[in-house]
Design brief:
By secondary structure, the protein is α+β, with helices and mostly antiparallel strands. Helix 2 packs antiparallel against helix 3.
Amino acid sequence: MAEKLSIDLVFDKNWCDIPASVKLKCIGKMEFKERLSLRCTAKAERSLVDSQKINFLKGVFWGDSDDGAVQVQNASYWHVQNYDKTDSLYKVAQIWIDKSSKNGSIFQVSVDKIDSSFDEFLKHFTDRIVSKTKKRVRIRTNNPDSHILLERAVDKGIKAENLQFFRLMVISSEMKESEYDDSCKEWVCKMDPEVYLEEWEHEFSLAPRPIGRPSFLPEESDISDESDEDY
């Protein structure tokens, strides 16, 4: 006969009595909202929650931030739409320089058409400029292996007459100008796909339609019982 195993009920106790190592494992299984709720219970729990990383695919903050502030840390990509000041480009670049940010870091922003962010960037980094055109500026950082590249979206297909789009990237100092991406459509659409809406509508109108099925209905294979929700 097999010998019975003695199993300790390690969770048969209050949360406050559970070892921190076990709490961390529990926190690692929690969703974001659950972590926020736990974080509000005590200082010790706040420290435990803050010590655990959580991966985000996407984060969206709507509304004015006059009565608060949004802080971004350790983000490899982020963008701001309809920014109403001229300091975003040079301030982000300066942070990257100060913190020796990794190659591949990307910041994108859309601003008013008459905004002077591009000129402000040039003034702020006059002594660091490696090369410049009307479309791009490349500057040195304190790291000899990295440069920062600022690109302005120049494309007749962009229909937003009152906006201009910029992309800021940390790149390898060995990167050649021939390796630059001359097409801005992909990264602009990542911010605001509607600026190419008319072009897409034109392409869609030229696409062949299946006979006998209204063009506004999806294919049966595309219909799902489950709907995606935005959080």
